Amino acid sequence: MKLSAAVQKSLNDQIRKEFNAAYLYLAMAAWFEERNLTGFARWMQAQAREEQSHAMRIYQWILDRGGKIQLMALDQPKPSWKSPLEVFQAAAAHEAKVSASIQDLYALAGKEKDAPTQVMLQWFLTEQVEEEAASTAIVERLRMAGDSPSGLLMLDRQLGERGGE
């Protein structure tokens, strides 16, 4: 069963969105590095690698289904933020947008009677729940830390322990 034109187009667009997310997280990592918050930067770098792997998972799916890859231009990410809290608020908002996009893609696959793509997207739906929960938890911890330098450094150390794909 080949991909419908509409599903193929939307999957290619999702590849772009995943690479845009990776690019955004790299910009966030650089912002943290510039402020010597290397734990936050490491977390964002791991997040960027994860988003790249998501893009490649969809890329391979399109190829496995006999589809055509169409890579699109990436958006330039925002280069700076006012605070670590603002960075993670932006990350949480971005993850919510990605979740909505995956849900729309899932609905489209259902409309197009493409059950295999729906099954593949189930993994992404579950992953997005985890992504949103993780970024929201960090936002809440940053709010708790407030203006406390020691709280910020503790969180920086904790996030720096994250592994990555």
Short synopsis of the structure:
With 165 residues, the protein is mainly alpha-helical.
Defining traits:
165 residues; mainly alpha; 5 helices; 78% helix; elongated
SS elements, strand count: 0
The shape is: elongated
Unreliable spans: none
**SS-derived structural category:** mainly alpha
Number of helices: 5
Reading the helices and strands in chain order gives: HHHHH
Radius of gyration: 17 Å
Strand content: under 5%
Please summarize the sheet with the most strands: none
Mean pLDDT: 96
Roughly how many Å apart are the termini? 31 Å
Helix content: over 70%
Topology:
Elements lengths: L4 H30 L3 H27 L19 H28 L3 H31 L3 H12 L5
Give an overview in words.
With 165 residues, the protein is mainly alpha-helical. Helix content is 78%, strand content 0%. It has 5 helices and no strands. It has helices spanning 5-34, 38-64, 84-111, 115-145, 149-160. Helix 1 (5-34) runs antiparallel to helix 2, helix 3 runs antiparallel to helix 4 (115-145) and helix 4 (115-145) runs antiparallel to helix 5. The radius of gyration is 17 Å and the shape is elongated. The model has no long low-confidence stretch (mean pLDDT 96).
